[in-house]
Amino acid sequence: MRYRFDDYTLNPAVLQLTKSGEPVDLPKRVFGCISYLIEHRQRAIGRDELIRKLWGRDNVSDNQLAHVVHAARNVLNDDGTAQRLIRTVPGLGYHWVGEVTETADPITPSIAPSQEQVIKPTFETPSLAPMNEAAPAPETETETPPQGHAAAEASEPHTATIAWHHSGKLRAAAALALTLVLVGVTAVSWQLRKAEPAAATAQLATATADHPFARLEDAFWQGKYEEVREGLAKLPAYHADSPDARLLDIRLDIVRGRFDRAAEKLLLQQAKAKAADDPIWQAKLFVTQSFLNGSAGKPGLDVLAPAQLAVNLVESAGHAASPQAMGEALSARGYGLMKTDQLEPAVRDLIRARALLLKAGGTHDAADTADTLARVQMRMGRLMDALALMNEIADFSRQAKNPVQEIYARNAITKIQIELLRWGDALASSDRSTHLLQTVPHSERRTRVLQLRALVLTGMGRLREATSLIEEGEAMNDARYSSIIPATYHLASGHTEQALADAQQADAFFRDNTDDSLNLESKEGALLLWMIAAQDLAANGKAMPMPSPAQLEALQQPTSDIGRIASGRWLWSQGKSQDAEAQLRLALAKTRQMGHLSRMLLASEPLIELLLQRGDATAAEQVLAELQGYDPQRLDQDYRANLLGLRVALALGSRPDIAAAYQRTAALAGERTLPAQVLFAYEAKMRSPNDRRTVKNTASRF
Fold first, then answer.
1. Quick check: 59 and 101 in contact, CB under 8 A?
2. N or C: which end of the chain has fewer CB within 10 A?
3. What is the helix, strand, coil percentage profile of the chain, to 5?
4. Quick one: pLDDT at residue 71?
């Protein structure tokens, strides 16, 4: 069989490619690549399958394969961007999409069609999204290979190039003899295949209907980790020992928190990659090392160092390095730079990495990079930029029908909306996450969805609903999540001692003081909640607990705005009013500069209370005006901000202002109880019996 396309003719029987009748010299693997893609043009070919056919082994990097495909495109004048003949199928491999004419070989008329037949691809090439559709699987090794592939394999020991007729009469004669032998073998093979039972044909169709690595990668990105584990265990030996399978196995251990096991496997693969002298494969393993160290909570330099090695290796490969490889390495380095607080360089790396990954079709990897970029922007106070990125990831995940990845993005969106005090938007995002849990009821992110919904409901005063969610989350006993959110809930519901215990537990959960997480989920965030609970106990006439030596050291040397607020509260409790005011004003200025509304409120609360305790109501009013002036619409709808307004109004003594402030605060309280001191002060200021009865009736509701 000969294959014609454009001005080219491919003759697998004699391993020859001609253009306008003139032979084309090309390496054997480039010829084999073109031949195999054409002969299997009815489907997309996975990278692993193509590697195994061209090299006869699995320990070959995607970059080496990409180099062969690039050479094939150059030979055929196929633009790598337009991809007129060979199209890249993101997340899978390659697909021949050019129009091909099959012509019978003149010396084998009995086994070939008697006339030319125009063949077009039989299915539509997948687009960039969705990425989780089932992809074709490699052919099984037990089936009889097509005649062109048999000819290509038979020729491997003979020559490094395929244009034999340039080698003189001796090679021409040898080629003719080989052709006759191959034709005879092919004829017998064809006759045998024609007699095969229908069951064998059905078995082959089943074997080629799905590509194992594409299927397992999709399952991994969807969070179906048990399915991935089972799939890896069922892989044939030639797949199970491949670099792709080994890397996926390591990544599975990482997401499941089996860090020691992942590290052992990683060391073994790194030794193999080094022995194979494959810089791209080594770079991929260093990228994995970076994320392993980050997931295991190691210091930032341990995250950055392997990522830098990955970048160096990819750069050393020069033009042989693919955009995907460089994108992965830069993404890891951006992650390491974030962990070492080098935020501006991290932004540059992550933006470049995302562009490269999108160019290479790595949409999942690009989404992960966008997530890291969003976290850097959160650290830098660019919450709106981070929110835009997370919405983009959520939309992509929804289009790709990947509920687990969408849940992850929606959770981040919910956290940002909480920080911006957008309670209605946060509830809508939480609603979507909760709905998605119905499609993945056993998602490993279920605890996080429940916790964040409880936090939103707490912020809206819907404590009864929040209670059931907190209890359900605690029943799961998920060690991956801290007790920060339960501590916040217990503070709002008046369970101060439980809040103190939760904050103490959360303090032990976090290994460092990094402030890249929202909703106080950091070591200094746990410390701040502990200080709030301790001061509340003291305000209710109980002994104020003393911080541990480690907590005391953190209070004396804060490293973030959250830490400064905690430090200010501690100084205030120790009677150092001036020092406390200075620390709190500094924190307020920093959080205002970053536009971080929730943290502005956290800094304003103790500062205003401190000023009121000192008797400086005018200064307290100025702080309140500064806070409310930043975003009046949001703060008008926030219970805690209105409670501060009520405290200031009570201190200033204007009855109409007090009444208005009280009504707004009570309307937003929901199921929360107004502090007893506020209720008593309100009753004292409002002298009429009717006003006192209103206070008592209101108090009885809580």
1. no
2. C
3. 70, 5, 30
4. 85
Amino acid at 605: E
Number of CB atoms found within 10 A of residue 578's CB: 10
Residues 6 or more apart in contact with residue 338 via CB below 8 angstroms? 346, 372, 375, 376, 379, 516
Tokens at 343, concatenated: 């935020």
Query: What are the residue ranges in the chain where pLDDT is below 70?
Result: 59, 63, 91, 105-212, 222, 442-443, 511-517, 687-702
Whether 358 contacts 393, CB under 8 Å: no
- Whole-number pLDDT of residue 38: 94
Please classify residue 676 by burial: count the beta carbons closer than 10 Å to its beta carbon, then call 0-12 exposed, 13-18 middle and 19+ buried: exposed
Whether the ω angle into residue 130 lies within 30 degrees of 0, i.e. cis, is: yes
In angstroms, the CA 358 to CA 366 distance is 6
Residues 373/331, Cβ–Cβ less than 8 Å:
no
Long-range contacts, 102-106 (Cβ 8 Å, 24+) = 102/1, 102/2, 102/3, 102/4, 103/1, 103/2, 103/3, 103/4, 104/1, 104/2, 105/1, 105/2, 105/11, 105/13, 105/183
Distance CA 657, CA 649 (A): 6
Three-state SS across 143-179? CCCCHHHHHHHHHCCCCCECCHHHHCHHHHHHHHHHH
Specify the 3-state DSSP secondary structure of 559. Answer: coil
Label the pairing between strands 93-96 and 86-89.
Answer: antiparallel
Which of 520, 526, 560 has the alpha carbon at shortest distance from 418? Answer: 520
Taking Cα atoms as reference points, which of 57, 5, 11 lies closest to residue 31? Answer: 11
> Which among 68, 8, 58 is positioned nearest to 32, based on CA atoms?
68
The tokens describing 448, both together, are 């996080």
Q: Which of 94, 38, 130 is nearest to 395 (CA)?
A: 130
472, 450 Cβ separation under 8 angstroms: yes
Among 317, 328, 214, 244, which residue's Cα sits nearest to residue 57? 244
Is 113 exposed, middle or buried, given 0-12, 13-18 or 19+ CB atoms closer than 10 A? exposed
Strand-strand pairing, 100-103 and 2-5: antiparallel
CA 77 to chain CA centroid, nearest Å? 37
Q: What is the pLDDT, as a whole number, of residue 107? A: 44
